[in-house]
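Follow-up to my earlier ticket, as requested here are the two runs.
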Amino acid sequence: MSTLTVAQVGFGVTTQDLGRPGLSDTGLGAAGAADRGAAALANRLVGNRPDAAVLEALLGSVTLRADAHVVAATAGAACPVEVERADGSVRGAASHEVLLLAPGDTLRIGTATVGLRAYVAVLGGFDVEPVLGSRSWDSLARLGPPPLTAGDVLPVGDARVSWPVVDAVPQPEQRWPGEPVVLDVTAGPRDDWFTDDWRAILTGQDHLVSADSDRVGVRTTAATPLVRAVTTELPSEGVETGSLQVPPEGFPVLFLADHPVTGGYPVVAVLTPRSVDRAAQLRPGDTVRFRIVD
């Protein structure tokens, strides 16, 4: 079996796939890749099925050494990429490019310049031990293959089942530094718990991403909070990925992949699936604008 050795880990790297859907009645969320679109693209680049396990690297910043011939690609956050050959020569590369690694080659993924989460896929997928049918690390439940550390050896699955059909794809259009990220939402199940002007408050101002954000959710602040019209307490009820839950201070929390399965604060709106992926790439200090769609 081919393997990759983790030579260096920067801000945090976990294995992720499509998660564990269907277990919310047991109190367990689906987890899985925070930016599902980027994870799927990385898998498509190397010729994998969509459910193959990838690495999710916070701000990129991970180095992997191959012990056999390996096909790899990165997607998601824009990161500098290079391959150091076994003879010491270095080849510049790029994200969203299919890379052929020979035994002894080292793949270096630098710190992301735009976005938060980069995804690394290898042909055959990362064949780590699944937990409850998934190779995803759930940071809230503390379940699944643990976050990677330097020295870990990652087995690669059977690479003979397919082969890449492209060499590279265009990198996603990058936004200018400081440019707001537009997130589309639909009205949520508890929008009537807020004053009639909640739409104007939500969409009429910039929202700032707080440093207190993670795979569970993205916290935001703004100049004007949302105001509750109903002041009674809401019994805990089920919540979905992409929910904009509003705690008492009035600033939405955007639930991501590792969110709890129930919540006691009203959900004013819900992100579209594409906007969930965008939200997964938000950094602390980024500016968000919400747009209500049908």
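Run two:
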Amino acid sequence: MHPPEPERAAELRARFAEEARAERPDLSVLCLLIGAVADGALDERGMDEAQIALDRLAGELPHRPGGPADWAEALATRLGGREGFRGSGPDYELLDSSLLHRVLRRRKGLPILLSVVWLEVARRAGGQVYGVALPGHFVVGFGRPPGPGDAEAGEQVLADPFDGGRVLTRGEAGLLVAGATGEPLDPSMLAPADPRDLVLRILNNIRAWAAAHPEHADVALWALELSLLLPSHPANLRYERARLLVRRGDFLTGAREMDAYAEVVEAVDEEAAAKVRREARAARALLN
């Protein structure tokens, strides 16, 4: 896998920023733009083919199968059963598992990317579907999610695309949360995930993959840069990008961005700002 040419990469970043700021961002478009930034072989035709593949899968579902449980069963039968979309432990070791176009070809991926397939197929078919960002394991919800103060999830049905679309009981969802955090399931965790938050979580997974493969610092850099294009993102990503630039030998740019980050944090944490400025001075000293 090779990155796109600089001109193409700049165009893709601009399109990603525009789509991310849309009133209703298109999740599949954002995911395919991530894939195109990662994989220079993914051209416009390839992106169109991925969209057509999602359309085809949606067209093969039963027409409006019924209530939430029926939708979950229809998706599991078609995607998890006949099409073979599901995940396994080794998928966590592959960058391909975080790229939608590769997941559509391989039928394998991380929970969140398989959930994107479920979401996009069900949405195209007219289903009431949304992502549910359980800590440590992304799943899909059908039907009415719990409202503020609800003790139960109403008509909500949860499905786990990583396990072929298996329907989860409330207790099983609680076990997933407890395994990831040690805490009980809170009804707020069952709320629909914003598409932009979902995309940020995908980019976080890519950064985590790159951190485990230091020879791919370029992947970490573009994942950070795309994250920073989202309308809402953690401020510390600017600091992380600055440190990565320094590690890659771009001392001056990294130091300049550290100083800019220190300006942001100084109002709330003067000691942290001073530490970042010391790092910036040390980075500039590497130029001598």
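The only thing I checked on run two: The two ends are 36 Å apart (CA to CA). Let me know what else you need.
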